[in-house]
Amino acid sequence: MIPIRKIVLLAVVLAALSCIPLYLHLTTSTAEFSRYNTQWNGTSLFFGDLEERGAVMVTDLAGIPSYPDSRLLLLAPDRAFSAGDLGAIRSYVTGGNTLLLADDTGTGNQVLEGIGARTRILPGNLSSLDFYLWDTQSGRYQPSSVIASVTREDLLTSKVEVILLNKPAAVEGGEVLAETSLMSWMDTNGDRRINPDEPLGTYSVFARERVGDGTLYVLSDPSIFTNGMVQLPGLENNTLFLEHVKDAPVLLVDQSHSRTGEAGGLIPLLAAARSTKVMELLMVAIVSILIAYLFHRRIL
User: Which of 57, 134, 206, 230 could be 178's S-S partner, Cβ–Cβ 3.0 to 4.6 Å?
Assistant: First the structure.
């Protein structure tokens, strides 16, 4: 018969081990675009790579002008910017830095107007007969999976031929870097069909504009950064485009106005702990020592 003391010790070890799945659960989110969301509509894969590259997660835009020769990513903005925030972004860009804004809702237009840019986001259900995805369940194509052709060689489009987007908006103004084919339209009623009041034409989806001494990029689809899009097969062009986006001497990523920063409760704290190599090694060491001890005492 096993002594009570050993039974209690075994129970404590099993309880500790059972906390690991709970810990992993507490460090994830289901919010769309969240960097803590490991599902198809999250951005955990993209942000995991950013963290390995040493990207700076910005929670206060007031400090961004202090990063010279850098690039700021503003992905899927979802809240209003204060006058101070807009002033900081304007100083940052006009001072010679680069801003990449990815938005399909029009929220980013406040930033574009605030920094004195002419480019604008035109929200809408941009669709095209040059699509990528087919819905096998419904047996219908998905014209919102738009294939856009690169029209101009640039730092971010070098050797990129096409970009696949998912439910993009359109971009007005600036130098067009990527646009849809002539067989594209704004699907205003959502029926996936071309109607008489939905004229065909080309639409800009990625544009560039000089603002002061800096450069502004506007992309009409933040979903290109989500796990589902990153993992789709045959998207070498998207992969190369994302590599260009991440390839900057200093990369800043806004978390104060972006849906990518959405989290709740203990998620940021626990996720930071999980991403710390020391914490990971400590957890492995503790579990290994406990298991070794139990084997030594012949409990397991």
Answer: 206
Q: Which residue has the tokens 């206060």?
A: 60
| Token pair belonging to 9 | 């010790």
Look up residue 215 and give its amino acid: T
Band of pLDDT at residue 25, cut at 50, 70 and 90:
very low
Which residues sit opposite 184 in a β-bridge?
128, 201
Strands 184-186 and 126-128: antiparallel
Asked whether 174 and 216 are in contact (CB, 8 A), the reply is yes
CATH class of segment(s) 54-260: alpha beta
Span 156-173, average pLDDT? 96
Domains of the chain by residue range: 4-27+266-296, 54-260
Q: Which two tokens stand for residue 227?
A: 């796990």
**Distance in angstroms (rounded) separating the CA atoms of residues 278 and 120:** 45
The whole-angstrom separation of Cα 102 and Cα 207 is 11
Residues 116-153 have pLDDT tens digits of: 999 999 999 999 999 886 554 555 557 889 999 999 99
Token pair recorded at residue 11: 């129970």
Q: How far apart are CA 233 and CA 162, in angstroms?
A: 15
Going by DSSP bridges, is the β-strand pair 140-141/147-150 parallel, antiparallel, or unpaired?
unpaired
Residues 6+ apart with CB under 8 A from 199: 185
Buried b (16+ CB within 10 A) or exposed e, 125-149: bbbbbbbbeeeeeeeeebbbbbbbe
Type of residue numbered 83: A
Distance CA 219, CA 170 (A): 8
Average pLDDT, the chain: 85
Q: Is 59 within 8 Å of 240 (Cβ atoms)?
A: no
The bridge status of strand 214-219 relative to strand 204-211 is: antiparallel
